[in-house]
Amino acid sequence: MGFVRSVTATLEVLRSLRAASQRLTSRPLSSSSVYIPPPVQITTLPNKVRVATESTPGHFGALGVYVDAGSRYESPRMSGCSHILDRMSTHTRTADSVSEQIDALGGQFLCSSSRETIMYQASHFTHDAPAALSIISDTIQNSLFLPEELDAQRDAAAYEVREVNAKPEMILPEIIHTVAYRDNTLGNPLLCPEERIDQIDGPLLKEFVRTWFRPERMVVAGAGIPHEELVELAQKHFGDISVPAAAPQKVPTHLLNSSKSQQQPSLYKSLTTAATSFLHNPSEPSFSNLAHARANYTGGHVFIPRPDLDLTHMYVAFEGVPIHDPDIYALATMQILLGGGGSFSAGGPGKGMYSRLYTHILNHHPQIDHCAAFHHIYTDSSLFGINTALHPSTTPSQVLPVIAHQFSMLLYKNVPAAELQRAKNQLKSSLVMALESRAVEVEDLGRQVLVHGRKIGVDEMCDKIDNVGPADMRRVAGRVFGESGSRLWRWEKLIGDRCHWSAAIALCYEENSGELAHACMRSVYLGLLVFIPVSTPPLRLSSV
Q1: How would residue 22 be classed by pLDDT, with cut points 50, 70 and 90?
Q2: What is this structure's pTM?
Q3: What is the CATH number assigned to the segment(s) 40-238?
């Protein structure tokens, strides 16, 4: 009898704990109770280099130099310089390599180039901050670019390009940018084109650094380092950097006839005045033209036959909102809401198994091996879309209507409160947990100061995410996919080099023929051009 009472009491306790747990987990994730942001200090040196620190205590610190440079700013003559400069980051000193010296400090060194940023970053013991910044400074300002080291890195870069081109999941994100921003800014190749690798030499790399590594385009950031110490170190290593003098420009002879020059249109829309567009050869635009050129979204399509592949890979993207836009938080929530991933997952909490692309597509269509939402964000544009990997027997004409159905649901149907709250909680938790890493913390600080001029704290971000409602989701879906879904079923033209596409489509398919490309074009007409009512259940491949 006593044993029964004991078991009964234990069960009552467990029920009480379960009920309390459910009450706690059902509440929205409050930003005020999640994260207490450390103080952020920003100082601008006399030459306009910005120094930012975040005072988080710990035995290990991190610092980095972040430069407003990258492939979007490359002229045709300098195409690929960012990629090669990235590879040369640890091979630019006469004595030991940078990586060996960082290893001697017990730290880590990272150089990375993207479309809008080149960063040099080190993790180290807090007392080794002077040595770490000295190494980074020497790497940036005193690079030798020795011919033998360049030759070795050219071979490595060529191998890297071949490896990336062989993997659809790696090359298609690059191709979708080329399609979406044809021949401008964000459409510039992130990897050095193979035909350009042998043309990049030491003098060209030094010219690239001299042109873009200007003090007003640089941020020195540190986490776990006293602000006064980092300001002093930054002044020592970067305080003497000055803006390079502009090279004298010669007026091209074909512009001496003013009547002719007035008839020739400028190729660059971002010129400060119409007159200055005629002072530079369009084949080599000026620094000002490149620095202020805005991303021009063109859209388009590309089909790549790959008989060696086991699956057909497809990307569909629309232009989203830039990073400064207030709707960026709603669009980020939309990506988490769609979620997705591979058809096989170990499952478990936090794996996104309740996201829409799992519950509506992957769980219903075994022919789809992978389906996930993506969002590439930039200062003046972004790309939002879905990528899929299909069995070769499944044609894109069967899958595109299913993808369009997911977009149309966001346009015409409010997201249920519980589903929206789950997506917002996942987005906030990912932000908070990422900042547990010291390297992520300092990179976030450096990039934000470079882009925003200040640090937007996690608490402020969480508040803005909390304010996203069902009406905001539908409104932002209208901005991205077109009001009333017009972009889902209407294109201005289907063929022609000058057509303006509402979406960018990249397809890597298994069959080595044009039939599947033609089928995809038909699927664009049948799937994205035809409205799919949201009142219908998710489409089955067999019913399309």
Answers
A1: low
A2: 0.79
A3: 3.30.830.10
